[in-house]
Amino acid sequence: MKAVEKKNEDSAVTVLSFDTSTAAFAAAIVRNGERMDSTVSFTERNHSVRILSEIKDLLSRNGIQSKDLDAIAVGQGPGSYTGVRIAVTVAKTLAWTWNKPLVGVSSLESLALGAWNSLQKSDEYMADERKIWIVPVMDARRGQVYTSRYEATTSGEWSRIDSDGIRLIADWAKRIEEEATTDSQVAEVWFVGDLAVHQSAIELAEQSGARLRTMSFDMDAEAVGQLGEIRFRQGERADIHTFVPNYTQLAEAEAKLLAASRGE
Predict the structure, then answer these.
(1) What is the CATH number of the domain that holds 81?
(2) Percentage of the chain lying above the pLDDT 70 cut
(3) Within-domain flag for 66
């Protein structure tokens, strides 16, 4: 990511944002941190079929043309190998064609921030002055998840605790539970995202009284746009030619080929 002159905080910023790292294709138009409009569709991860038409429809129904956009923000991964590649390829193509700045954001951070935004509006969340840990989860098969950890407060603070990575959910949930138990400033821990397969492992980790809570949540492109706008205002721009997905690990097929080539 390269830095350029920062955007004045008082200036209006309009961002087209989208992500295809999960089963959901999510796109949004975000202006000054607020959702103008958004769309979500589920096409069994076959995002390449509809992504361009969905983006075109989203822009058209809001009277937005490419000249009206200040930047394109895209979920860079990790997540579905094919899905992440689709979003990044389309984002690079549009940024090049429209001559727009490109900003990449973590798909896991976008998932976490979107869930946090939703939690604050829900009846399940009780406002607390202490810290809230948000743990985004995407299934990576065989008991593994793409995950990270973020810390939020009701005063608006947001920070990363752990980097994006692939981890065994049982060990990860146990570690989170142990650390939350020893930190009196942590009010709640929320595991959010793709939880169907991993719910029991998270529940089993709760042994010491830490409040581990769960919420199934689909990707929200508004959060992608919010994170992208922050980075854009800070002067961050991706180099379109060298910008690549963050796969976190090799796809299984590619990993097997690599192992075979090494005689493993």
Answers:
(1) 3.30.420.40
(2) 86
(3) yes
